[in-house]
Amino acid sequence: MKKLFLLPIFIAFFSLSGFSQELNFNNENISFQITEIKAVGEQLHCKFIITAVESDETIYISLQKIRIFDTKGNEYNPEQGEIGKEKVTGKFSRMNSNIIAGVPVKGKIIFSGAVSKRKTLNLLEIPINIAPKETDVNIRFTNIIIPFGTSDADKKLLNNPLSEEIDDAVFTELKSITKKSDTLTFNFIVTNYDDDKIEVLNATSSKFIDDSGNEYYPNHISFGNDKTDGRYAALSKKCINKVPIKMTVRFTDSKIVNLKKIILLELGMNNNKFQFRDLTTE
Q: At the topology level of CATH, where does 152-280 sit?
């Protein structure tokens, strides 16, 4: 008779009822901590830190096996993931990292769609395979209030209805709306509070809708000193820590002459969309 060898599987449950609590998991192999969960446009970003405890470990995380359940029972899988310098895209992708004992490694899991609008998650499940030991760790966190782990400074910026976080610690604020005859210009300031990084403004995924249901698309954008025309234009800019950069999105249409109210403005940045609602041109 053949012997059966069963791989050890660890399942850990954690419940969260307030922002002050922490989401941590520890065993003899790894230490895992959720550091932040927040909505970024039409995405939900889940950041974590993982550390090998006693010896170097090779870990694998399959995006297909990670899942979130909201309070209505809907299930979501991530479409992007990062660990260390490795970035993967696609629901069926797998991340791996060789972790040195005692050295924390940052990671991030990105979900897209309706889950970005949820304020409470019933369950976040992250299975991790520790390859050398052939050990599976199934980490589960329950009853998570979003945002979780967000700093007070970031909360203050996010509480401004004219401010959106377009990337990690990079905020854009709608400073003014300029109307001149048949032309409407939205004036933004982009400020990066983190390490220098590249941000991309996309005219293709930007638009606004007036109170009559008409849609308008931009014909000109600018980012810093760079400018370009066209419906399908895009501009990229290196954003330096704490150096504000001007950004504009301009629309031209004969219906703008009598326009007074904007129901929705969508700003396309970094393959994502950010919304500003109930704006006036007066």
A: Immunoglobulin-like (2.60.40)
CA–CA–CA angle 34, 40, 42 (5° rounding):
120
Query: φ and ψ at 147, to 5 degrees?
Result: -80, 150
Q: Where are the beta strands (DSSP E) in 41-119?
A: 43-52, 57-62, 67-70, 75-76, 80-83, 86-89, 94-99, 105-112
At 201-219, the pLDDT tens digits run 999 999 999 999 999 999 9
Domain ranges for the chain, please list them.
Answer: 10-145, 152-280
* Segment 122-137, tens digit of pLDDT: 999 999 999 877 789 9
What is the C-alpha separation between 126 and 148, in angstroms, rounded? 17
CA-wise closest residue to 167 among 45, 35, 36: 45
**Whose structure tokens read 């479409």?**
79
> If residue 23 lies in a helix (H) or strand (E), which one and from where to where?
strand 23-26
d(CA 112, CA 148): 17
Give the Cβ contact number of residue 7 at 10 Å: 9
Phi, psi of 153 (to 5 degrees): -65, -45
The angle formed by the CA atoms of residues 247, 115 and 190, to the nearest 5 degrees, is: 15
* Class in CATH terms, 10-145: mainly beta
Strands 135-145, 9-15: pairing is parallel
Q: Confidence band (pLDDT; 50, 70, 90) for 282?
A: confident
Instruction: For 104-152, give the DSSP string.
Output: -EEEEEEEESGGGG-SEEEEEEEEEEETTTTEEEEEEEEEEESSBS--H
